[in-house]
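To: structure desk
From: M.T.
Subject: fold request, one chain
Message: Could you run this one when you get a chance? Sequence is below, nothing fancy, just the single chain.
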Amino acid sequence: MSILGNINANVPFSTGTQIPHLKVPPNAADCHHHIYNSRFPVDLASELRPPDATVAEYRLLQKRIGTTRNVIVQPSTYGTDNSGLVEALKLFGLSATRGIAVVNNDVSDEKLKELNTFGVRGIRFNFSRPGKGISLDMVEQLAKRIYDFNWHIQVVASANQILGGAEVWERIRCPVVFDHLGHVPSIHHPAFPFIVKLLKRKKAWVKLSGAYIHSQFGPPTYKDRSIVAKAYVREVPQQLVWGSDWPHPTARLDNKPDDALLLDLLAEWAPDETIRHHILVENPERLYGFPRMFKTLPR
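Reply: Done. Structure tokens follow.
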């Protein structure tokens, strides 16, 4: 991939200093990243304990890749204590930032209303780490409570777990957003056509993110994950958003991916400029309620 330049500064938790070849359109959104701050208490049951990754450091990533809107996802590290998420949302400001919280059945209606005021637009369920007291029954119960907020359910789960919950994803009224390409290992896994079916019915969304997480090929092509991403783009581009997954909490500190390369993959997955505009701007406006902007494509 060709690279256009260098910002002459390292972005923490990201390899390289080069900027992407792909120039993103105005109001492009990074729809999946995390903020970590050791001032906030960790969930003792959590397994991931990354170092601090701050709002100021994330702004360096925005400067590097050119995105101006962002969606902060509550990390599993803090469990259902969303105070760090709320602080980060306040620092970024509601005009360009949204949040995804983690809650359980004990959350009050007043707390949900408060989170909505701060820019939260969904709740996340992490089925990839067992033993955390999360159940499909909880998903259904909370989906009913958040429906009137126009929120969505965000799911991180294996492809087999997604299939195991098929009746739930079909039944709940609010949309379901599947993290990281739905974690399907290939387009031949039965979870892939199931997810595509939900996308076509506008019951679900997929994040084009985390190509490095399960890839057997690795950079620069992430060939196996790219095959899956391209297939989603061919099938239902109007139900896709893109995310960096910065600061890449599941990657070792000495093996973080190159965020410029990860963004440039989108140019390969979606070579049509109009489709990329949907993925980066218009789709996030629909899903997260960012202010709608007139469509402007580079000349």
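Reply (cont.): Confidence is low (pLDDT under 50) at residues 1-5. Let me know if you need anything else for the meeting.
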